[in-house]
Fold these 4 entries.
Entry 1:
Amino acid sequence: MDSGKFDIVLLKMKRLCSVREYCAGDISAKGVKSGLNEIEVARLIEILKKDKFVDDLRYSEAFARDKIKLSGWGPSKVVYALKTKGVDSEIISAAVKSVDLGLRRGVQKRVLEQKLKKLNRDRDPDSVFNKLIRFALQRGYGFGEVFEAVKELTGKNKKSI
């Protein structure tokens, strides 16, 4: 790719990054789609990072906060999603830890309460209990915290599943 075309792609990426957050993996995919080779993509990301258009930590913190708060995801699902985007494990860990524990627990409780309302209360209480557990685990919450939250929510004093 010639220098003029690279500059056009760079300008386009700067414009995109000024509107919303992107991680280096997202920019890499967009660069390849725009016809850049590996060397040009690496240069593109280097320039965008240097000019603070791309910051994986800033992106990951916003991603974690939004997915937990708005989508009701648990930490495990956030970690998996960020890994698929190629974000470094240390950055992912810092991003998930940056989300307030009280917020995470509040969202988890809200999500479980909404699911409980959707489940038919006439069903077997054990079935409802187990469905809530599975639902929360699929959302990316840890078993220990889910088990306790579901016990509290359903009023069960269940020792094992």
Entry 2:
Amino acid sequence: MSNRLLHTMIRVMDMDKSIDFYTRHLGMKLLRRKDYPSGEFTLAFVGYGDEDDSSVIELTHNWGRKEPYEIGTAFGHLAVGVEDIYGTCDKLAKEGVKIPRPAGPMAHGGSVIAFVEDPDGYKIELVQK
């Protein structure tokens, strides 16, 4: 077996809102979810394919957290390829998803992209496939 990226973990304030965003809005599947009462946290894994052969996102909810997380200046974004970026952005806008950078060509040439935000403010780059 060769090395590969297994998952990227992000901390979320509301697990249900985050699962809804990644599954309903971005079309991922909820692969698994488990509560860890002794540690007071919940993990959920979402993605487009099975964890055995696809990279996924690990959503981590710490039960006692009251303040939103700081995204920080080092984190950039997650990227998702979409078939119809303009239609996807229209659908997301109608659902109230924040779109800080609407769909359009990159400023210096290249792909057609957009940036949306998940419920915790993580940036998701949409890339036209």
Entry 3:
Amino acid sequence: MSNVKLSILTPVYNVKDELGKMIESVLAQTFTEFELILSDDGSTDGSGEISHIYAQKDSRVKALHFENGGVSEARNRAVAAAKGEYIGFVDSDDVIEKNMFERLMKTAY
């Protein structure tokens, strides 16, 4: 991925029922120069598999999988993997407006 301006980081832990909605809302962003890093913190409910499926379908999505270390550890691992000039966080149970990051990036530039 050559044009990553923004890394959107999401810690994931046992959120199978909400995760797809959050991912879809990020992938529908009007700002498209991003990567979405899903940092699975040892989920036992299938959330890790959902992350992996999205990563296979869309090159902007990266799925990281680790043993449970807590939300801070999941965020830190995602930060370490981030390639973007800017970093944004979206919780795994959030649904965001389609122009959220476009508006934020216009403000940043």
Entry 4:
Amino acid sequence: MTLNEFFGKYLGKAVQYNVSDTKKYQCVDWAKCYCYEYLKLPVNKNNWAWGNARQWFTNKEALKYFKAIKNTPDLVPEAGDLCIWGGDEFGHISVATGIGNTKRFVSMDQNYGGKYVKPVYHDYSNFIGVLRKK
């Protein structure tokens, strides 16, 4: 399955992945689904894929699978990168499409202006950086 086929499978759907029923359809659900189904990484709520979105960037267990690349003026997320924002206590996480430049980029997001997976144009405000699969 290509990355675009994976995106198409979930476009317009709400993804619930191994998180409590009280916090449904979060951005982290989408990230876990991507990591498990597309990247074929071991994911469950008791292993490396834990915490709020912003915590993934410094999660030592996650860094066994990903390289953390901090945001710089030259950074452009590559297709398949996990994109991570701060800005509040939870942050946000999405999957890069590979479309973008140093001013704006597009990622597939959930729980960003609605609970459904969709493409979103982002600038780099509050952007922490990306996790790139090793």
